[in-house]
Amino acid sequence: MLFLLVKYMSGWIKLHRKIEDNPLWFNEPFTKGQAWVDLILFANHKKRTIQIRGNFVDIGRGQLGWSELTMAKRWQWSRNKVRRFLNYLETIQQIEQQKDRFITTIITILNYENYQKEQQTIQQKDSRRYINNNVKNNIYKYILVELSKIFDFPLRENKTAYKDLAKLIKRFGDKKNLLAFARKAKSFKEYPYVIESPGSLWRKLDKIEARLKIKEDIEKDKMYYGTQEVKRVGGKLKVKGSDGNYLEFGGHIKDIINYKR
Fold first, then answer.
1. At what angle do helices 32-41 and 68-75 cross, to 10 degrees?
2. Total-model pTM
3. What is the pLDDT of residue 2?
4. How far apart are the first and last CA of the chain?
5. Which tops the pLDDT comparison, 38 or 189?
6. CA atoms within 13 A on the CB side of 48
């Protein structure tokens, strides 16, 4: 057990065994509360076997193999005070004692799991977070490799690249849609942008999407003058402005893609 989770009001604090490295912990005789915390802190978190005076003793989870003399020295108490304290804890059903005058006293912390549930939850969450992060990093690496192949840029793994990938994935919903877009963007000759990294793709995304829309419209026989859509309105050619309104066309008809009379 690395630390004890002590409930305070409606929350918890982590209390590490290393607290005993602080001179204040042994600066003066222990209080009863301090001695109780000391017992919980040093109870086994898993079963193990110890050797005492040539005898092998099994100590289970939530148990300690401490003699009265050990506790008396540690807590700076008399052995009688230790014995009275342990008997009191047993009376209020906080511990059970198994005494062997020739070996040691095995102390069992009752309801030990109540002091561990929150720790187990934290450990499980940390484990899931570690697994999820590994999965996410593997996905990001796969996407980064694929994008570097599509746009022919050097593969560089760093926090910035992964941060930009996260924005791209969020924009497209998943890796499949993102990579499909990238392949589509690179597939037509009019593609005018150099992509050197995920960040470069992110910054030029709106322009690339606009070019792709134009390509799709042209394939549907819509008329375009450069990047501006052209329509025939009342017998006259008009181009779509940046504000969405159509203005009279003043260019050369030969420059209109898919021109129709």
1. 120
2. 0.44
3. 44
4. 84
5. 38
6. 10
Q: How far apart are CA 196 and CA 144, in angstroms?
A: 11
H or E element: which one contains 180?
A: helix 175-186
Q: In the predicted model, is pLDDT for residue 176 greater than 80?
A: yes
Q: Cα(21)–Cα(143) distance, rounded to whole angstroms?
A: 48
Q: For strands 236-240 and 228-233, give the pairing.
A: antiparallel
Compute the distance between CA of residue 28 and CA of residue 26 in angstroms, rounded to an integer.
6
Dig out the tokens for 118 from the structure: 């929150």
- Name which of 109, 86, 98 is nearest 57 in CA terms: 98
- What would the pLDDT profile of 76-119 be if each residue is shown by its tens digit? 999 999 999 999 999 999 999 988 766 788 999 998 887 776 55
Domains along the chain with CATH numbers = 3-114 (1.10.10.10), 118-220 (no CATH), 221-261 (no CATH)
Type of residue found at 205: L
**Contacts of residue 129, Cβ cutoff 8 Å, sequence gap at least 6:** none
